[in-house]
Design goal:
Layout lengths: L1 H16 L20 E5 L7 E4 L10 E2 L4 E12 L11 E10 L10 E10 L10 E8 L6 E7 L10 E4 L9 E11 L6 E10 L1
Parallel strand pairs: 3-11
Antiparallel strand pairs: 1-4, 2-4, 4-7, 5-6, 5-10, 7-8, 8-9, 10-11
Length: 204
C-alpha cells in the first residue's frame, strides 16, 4: 500500500513539474497571448513613392511640369505582421488611397487640393487598379486650362478611374509654383493605420 501511494505522489509531482494539466501560449519575446501588430507602410527606396515627368531628360527637371505634361505617380506598399514577414495565401486587405497637392509637407485636408481617392487591394485583385504597387497619371493644365485630369493605371478596372478632373484655379495662384504631392493610404478595417508620404514638384 505504501508503495502504491508513493508511486501516485511521484507521478503527480512529475506532471506538475513538467507543466502537465495546463498550457500557456508564449511568444518569442516572452509575453503570453501576445497579439502581433499589422504593419502598413510605403516601401523603402528605390520603391518609395515618387513623382516624375516622362518628358524630362535630366534628374534636375524630372519633377518639373509644364502645361500639357503628365505627372506620373508610382508607389509600392508593404503589409505584414510584426512577428511574421508574410501574409497568408488567402489574406486580402482593402485600403483607401488619396492624393493631394499641398503648399508644404504637412497634410491639411481642409486647405490642400485633393486630386483623387481610390479603393485598393493588397494583394492586388483583378477588380482593383492598385495594390502592392500603384501607378497614376495626371495631365497638368492641358491647353493652359486651370485643371488636372487623373487616371489610374491599368485601365478598365472596376475600382479604378479615368479622367477625374479637378479645378486648380484657387490652389495654383501663381506660376511657377513649388508644391508637394502628398499620398495618404489607410487600411479599410483600421482607418487609423495609415501610410503617408510626400514628394516635391514644380509647376511651371
Amino acid at each position: 500500500m505504501k508503495t502504491t501511494i508513493s508511486l501516485i505522489l511521484a507521478s503527480a509531482f512529475f506532471l506538475t513539474s513538467c507543466g502537465g494539466g495546463s498550457s500557456t501560449s508564449t511568444s518569442a519575446n516572452g509575453n503570453a497571448d501576445d497579439n502581433p501588430d499589422l504593419i502598413f507602410e510605403f516601401a523603402a527606396p528605390p520603391l518609395h513613392p515618387r513623382v516624375f515627368n516622362l518628358a524630362s531628360f535630366s534628374a534636375e527637371t524630372e519633377n518639373h511640369f509644364n502645361p500639357g505634361e503628365t505627372i506620373s505617380l508610382i508607389y509600392d506598399t508593404d503589409l505584414y505582421f510584426s512577428d511574421e514577414p508574410f501574409l497568408g495565401l488567402l489574406d486580402q486587405y482593402l485600403y483607401d488611397s488619396s492624393v493631394y497637392l499641398s503648399n508644404d509637407t504637412v497634410l491639411n485636408e481642409a486647405t490642400d487640393l485633393k486630386l483623387f481617392s481610390v479603393e485598393c487591394s493588397y494583394p492586388m485583385s483583378l477588380e482593383h487598379a492598385c495594390g502592392e504597387t500603384a501607378h497614376f497619371q495626371c495631365l497638368y493644365a492641358k491647353d493652359n486650362a486651370n485643371m488636372t485630369s487623373c487616371t489610374s493605371i491599368p485601365l478598365g478596372r472596376t475600382n479604378g478611374f479615368m479622367d477625374i478632373i479637378v479645378d486648380t484655379t484657387t490652389f495654383i495662384d501663381v506660376v511657377p509654383k513649388e508644391v508637394h504631392v502628398i499620398i495618404k493610404s489607410c487600411l479599410r478595417e483600421d482607418p487609423s493605420n495609415c501610410a503617408e508620404a510626400n514628394y516635391p514638384l514644380k509647376l511651371l
